[in-house]
Design a protein that fits this description.
This protein is of the alpha+beta class. It has ten helices and 41 strands. It folds into three domains: 6-293, Beta-galactosidase, Chain A, domain 5 (Distorted Sandwich); 302-517 and 569-589, Aldolase class I (TIM Barrel, Alpha-Beta Barrel); 627-699, Golgi alpha-mannosidase II (Immunoglobulin-like). It comes from Neptunicella marina.
Length: 701
């Protein structure tokens, strides 16, 4: 046993990994073991408690107190937290993440459980540490574990920053779980806050998400998550109990696991990361790590960046004539897509053409697509796979496709009064492939608008007809269902655009590689348009085509600026006057609106900011004011500032040391000339604005 030692190692590329044992002053003298690299260290004590130390400012600042970071609960209710260190070894490791260093700490509990904690570090991820934990039953009798907890850390309140502004929160957080209330993914934390962030179903048809959480202060942030290639039914709890207690976060997994004598439980691979500013850097590193593991985002066709008109303004009772009459106006405004939305079908599940709208069936649908193309537009069709309505032929003839719960009951999809189909069942998949081939291969659509909150995650399936190896097959194989649809569409048309809109839910990361356009998916505010955009640019890439959804869903039903400034694709569901359609009246494009719509779409097609590089690491979406986003494109910097009513000085970050013209490109006004500080790469401008200011910085030389 190695109780006291000082061991320093140098990693490849000059990034240090260090492991040290030293006496610390607390209530008692105890050995500590530090394992880390350039940006972050985990420090363990003799009981294998740990805490996180940040080196981002090179001062080695502890972010919280020692705590029970990895432990298990037994079926008896006993929590096994203390593991006396028995061995510490170090060495190298080679994996898909590269050549790194590994430290293995082993401890024994009084209850006969041996815990091994592996901490790995890699030069390409200097602010992350990768954790693997196992538990071995060394007793002569079996034991049952009901829950394991991992990466349970604390982020203290920074007393030097708190109290400076009484209105400023101590913490902001990104939380990747999905909820039926379609809440913000990014929010300030208030004392008393607590959320489990379960990655399974949080409502009948709302589940899954991105399996990481990130909590940050103004000076530093802390994140944890799991790295499995399949979605897992973990929880990622975040709590902020009281003003000065700090925030806590962890990875938890509940399951009855019986360990026979000598058997070992291996938990999920997880990570801990530190960062400056907001959560964007964590998302970027997480995306890069998962790509190395095999989850790579799809290639993007140019068509995915083109602006969109959607017929949903006419809602389900649209007529084909209404759609056709609107096409020339959409093209005139500079839109390139026409989307036929919900209402073309008789029901979810059967997907027969509505005879009132398409009396000649396929012939009429093909004729509509031809008219969309003749108008100079591309055609996209709305579809809600995995849903089947009561009374449909599909439900009557193929009830074996249903996803059933543990009691043999159907699982509801609330918005359409439908039931789930199982994505892991071969017949469900074959049925979906047939429909994709019809939509794209026969009818001639160039894109799919796949829609519904139920698409993000599914419950475990207990249907005996499916012969699943495990009920969780439906959960794990949902992404494979989307891959099958995506691959089928791209095989027919390599430039097809596959948009998945999970209706307000936090996108399931494991599904993202199988779409080439994301969307703000029924945003409840312009804040959601912007914060979701930052999130999805982080998860998919800085030039990923993120659609801001119909502008009519933004604040005042006209906030183009929130989509435009963050580099989102613009879209609208405007209508033309239609006396027999009451829904259409709310979105009629009158003369005044048309002038505004024309201006924004002309500007969009001229600048095409989504093809630029979103620079999400320059500003903190929580603590910086005004809220600021930046896109770099064609050697220019495009800054977007947002605030209800601003009068002060804005800062331009990320500049080269030279002079720039500052142009309000929305109103075609030159505002100033600024010089970037050669040391900081920043410049400032005193200004006033309401709601937004979008400016372009043009290098003078």
């Amino acid at each position: 046993m190695q109780n006291k030692f000082h061991l320093w190692m140098t990693m490849l590329l000059g990034i240090p990994l260090f492991l040290s044992g030293c006496a610390t002053t607390s209530e008692t003298q105890s050995d500590t073991y530090k394992v880390g690299q350039a940006g972050v260290t985990l420090e363990f004590n003799q009981s294998l408690q740990s805490r996180v130390i940040s080196h981002l400012n090179q001062e080695g600042k502890s972010l919280g107190d020692f705590g029970y970071s990895e432990y298990v609960l037994l079926s008896s209710g006993e929590k096994i937290t203390d593991f006396n260190v028995t061995d510490v070894t170090t060495g190298t490791v080679d994996s898909e993440l590269g050549h790194g260093q590994q430290t293995l700490l082993t401890g024994q509990s009084a209850q006969g459980i041996r815990k091994s904690v592996s901490v790995q570090s890699y030069p390409d991820y200097p602010d992350m540490l990768f954790v693997k934990v196992s538990y071995t039953n060394t007793n002569a009798e079996p034991l049952v574990i009901t829950q394991w907890v991992q990466n349970a850390y604390q982020l203290k309140v920074n007393s030097l920053l708190s109290g400076v502004d009484s209105d400023a929160p101590a913490f902001w957080a990104f939380q990747g779980a999905s909820h039926a209330d379609r809440r913000d993914w990014v929010m300030p934390l208030i004392p008393g806050y607590s959320e489990q962030n379960y990655m399974g179903m949080n409502a009948s048809d709302y589940g899954s998400g991105t399996p990481l959480i990130d909590v940050w202060r103004k000076d530093v942030g802390l994140a944890v998550g799991h790295l499995d290639l399949d979605p897992q039914l973990v929880s990622l709890p975040v709590s902020y109990p009281a003003l000065q207690q700090g925030a806590s976060l962890a990875v938890e997994f509940e399951k009855h696991i019986k360990l026979m004598p000598g058997e070992t439980l291996q938990t999920l691979d997880t990570f801990v990361a530190v960062h400056h500013k907001d959560y964007y850097a964590t998302l970027v590193d997480y995306r890069k790590v998962m790509a190395k593991k095999g989850l790579v985002m799809a290639d993007v066709p140019d068509a995915a960046y083109e602006p969109i008109w959607c017929a949903w303004g006419y809602e389900r009772d649209f007529s084909v004539e209404e759609v056709e009459k609107t096409l020339p106006k959409a093209k005139q405004l500079g839109l390139e897509w026409a989307v036929l939305d919900d209402g073309w079908q008789t029901s979810e599940g059967d997907w027969y053409l509505d005879k009132n709208k398409f009396p000649n069936g396929d012939k009429d649908m093909k004729a509509l697509v031809d008219k969309i193309k003749a108008a100079g537009l591309k055609a996209k069709l709305w579809w809600a796979p995995l849903a089947v309505d009561p009374g449909t032929d599909l439900l009557h003839d193929h009830s074996d496709m249903l996803l059933l719960d543990q009691d043999g009951a159907v699982q509801d999809i609330t918005w359409w009064n439908s039931f789930y189909l199982c994505p892991a069942y071969s017949k469900t998949r074959e049925n979906a492939v047939r429909l994709v081939k019809k939509i794209i291969g026969e009818w001639g659509y160039a894109g799919l608008k796949i829609d519904g909150q139920h698409l993000n995650g599914v419950p475990p399936c207990y249907n005996p007809a499916h012969h699943h190896a495990s009920p969780q097959d439906s959960v794990n194989e949902l992404a494979e269902f989307w891959k099958l649809i995506y691959d089928t569409a791209i095989e027919i048309n390599p430039d097809a655009v596959v948009e998945i809109c999970p209706c307000g839910t936090s996108y399931a990361f494991h599904n993202l590689p199988y779409m080439n356009q994301t969307v703000s998916s029924d945003p409840l505010s312009s804040w959601q348009v912007r914060s979701k955009g930052k999130t999805l640019k982080g998860l998919m890439g800085p030039s990923a085509p993120y659609y801001g959804d119909h502008v009519e869903l933004s604040d005042n039903a006209s906030d183009f600026a929130s989509s435009f400034g963050i580099g989102a694709v613009l879209g609208s569901k405007f209508t033309l006057p239609s006396p027999n359609n009451k829904a259409a009246a709310a979105f009629v494009l009158d003369a005044e609106k048309e002038k505004t719509w024309q201006h924004w779409f002309d500007l969009y097609n001229k600048l095409m900011l989504p093809k630029g590089e979103y620079l999400g690491d320059l500003y903190d979406i929580g603590f910086d004011y005004p809220e600021t986003h930046v896109v770099r494109k064609d050697g220019k910097m495009f800054y977007a500032f947002y605030a209800p009513d601003f009068d002060g000085t804005v800062e331009f970050r990320g500049l080269q040391p030279q002079k720039y013209r500052v142009v309000d490109y929305v109103n075609n006004r030159e505002l100033a000339t600024v010089s970037a500080d050669p040391q900081k790469g920043t410049a400032t401008l005193a200004t006033q604005f309401k709601q937004y200011l979008l400016v372009e910085l043009i290098p003078l030389d």
